[in-house]
Amino acid sequence: MTEMISHLESLGIDAGRKGVAKDIEQLMEAGFDVVINSGKPHEYFMGNRHFELPELKLLVDAVQAAKFISVKKSTSLTEKLTALTSSHLAGELHRQTYIESRVKADNERVYITVDMLHTAINTGKKVLFKYYEYDRHKRKTYKHGRKVYSVSPYGLLWNYDCYYVVGYSDSHAKVISFRVDRIASPELSDVPAVQPAPEFDISAYARSVFSMYDGPMRDVTLKCEHSCMKTIIDRFGEDVDTAILDDEHFSANVNVSTSQTFYGWIFSFAGKISISEPEDVKTEYHALARLCLADKK
Fold first, then answer.
1. Of 4, 151, 194, 278, which one's alpha carbon is 20 to 30 angstroms from that of 71?
2. Closest by CA position to 170, among listed 127, 201, 209, 132
3. 89 and 66: one domain?
4. pLDDT digits (tens, 9 = 90+) for 105-159
5. Does residue 276 share a domain with residue 248?
């Protein structure tokens, strides 16, 4: 009470104990969650906030883990999140901060690009942009000689701490994904977007395309050891079609992008997950494994 009266006086407001107590009572009647700790002296604080401390910790972790948000922007967003709690609890959020040691994007305009992509999706317009990668000297190089891509965006996906825009690419003549943090010089076009096919499901697309690498979509049957069930569910969801084969194995029927990334994922289980069919997918996988073992001297 003494601190509140002193603060009000510093603002030129003459307030006594009875007046402040009445104000607090009216705030509580109006729905504010003012908590009173009885003691000598009494302590007053706001109980209910828009975000509780555990919720803010989750948000701070998400911001700091996201590769597509630069270190500078991550720091700025963390500071804004800490402002949503008390100055005493904010210290706990600051102790979480270890952004500098994480792999982060260096593209400061990512959040502006994301906002533009959402605008394009909501207004049904195409976007234009250049796309870059890295050469052997770690220098940014534009793909296909600074080619300008024309894309009808359908949605944004967050996959393995990276942000992707999924949409119809005019030059590829199909639905494809682009890393948002590698988009350069984005522009919102006035040209109406190409509408997705009625059967297009962005959630199914996200489940089937491993790590956003493009390849032909195929129905594949996997033979898996029982210990791998959690891995199959984590990757394909609880609705994945499975069947018990024997005391040690089960099968999983999945629709996947048969890219090198998919084959690498299979290889990482050292035989605990293998490809049963179709035969041509098995053959391609075996050929790739032999290629990796070949002496290239």
1. 151
2. 127
3. yes
4. 666 677 788 889 989 999 999 999 999 887 777 778 888 888 899 999 998 888 7
5. yes
